[in-house]
Design goal:
This protein is 75% helix and 0% strand. The chain has helices at residues 12-32, 39-48, 53-81, 85-101, 111-123, 129-168. It is globular. The N and C termini lie far apart (54 Å). The mean pLDDT is 86.
């Protein structure tokens, strides 16, 4: 029986190893640092992970811009409206408008509004503005750590490839 529909994509093993090893490092590292559930760091690692440094840097930049814009809009909405559904709708509107009006805004702009929903839905169960703003800033920190881990892994991957290629190259004759 042949399974023609199952065909691993190029770099499938690279993605798997980088995502699993990065998630393990982030999970245990951030938990040791006091972050009980470092999901945002893991999600950011997954979004940014690429075998090519140029693409990884573009993903890092897009993830950072979208998270920061979603966080800023969410924090302003929390201060103005409090943790309400109206605040979420206002922040969603603002996040979409920001993404649509700014030139050269990253193509995966939907991460900004998604950040708004995640932050404000978490704020609904918060216990005051200070705690809600702290939560938003913690999420941005997790995004930066997870995205940076993906860049570091890409750098290590490229270094290992170059090292392997130089080791496989024939020695020059003497």
């Amino acid at each position: 029986m042949e399974l023609h529909f199952i065909n691993p994509r190029k770099n499938a093993l690279v993605y798997l190893v980088k995502i699993l090893s990065g998630c393990i490092i982030l999970w245990y590292g951030l938990r040791a640092a006091g972050i009980e559930e470092p999901y945002w760091a893991m999600i950011s690692l997954i979004i940014v992970t690429e075998p090519d440094m140029t693409v990884a840097k573009a993903n890092f930049r897009a993830r950072l811009i979208n998270t920061l814009s979603g966080c800023i809009v969410s924090c302003i909405a929390l201060v103005v409206f409090g943790p309400t559904f109206i605040a979420m709708l206002a922040a969603l509107t603002a996040a979409v408008v920001v993404a649509m009006l700014l030139q050269n805004y990253p193509s995966n702009w939907r991460l900004g509004p998604a950040t708004v929903v995640i932050l404000l839905s978490a704020a609904f169960s918060g216990q005051g503005l200070g705690q809600e703003l702290h939560l938003a800033l913690m999420r941005v920190g997790e995004v930066i750590v997870g995205s940076t881990m993906a860049l570091l892994q890409t750098g290590i991957y490229i270094w290992l490839l170059k090292r392997k290629e130089s080791g496989d190259a024939p020695a020059s004759g003497t």
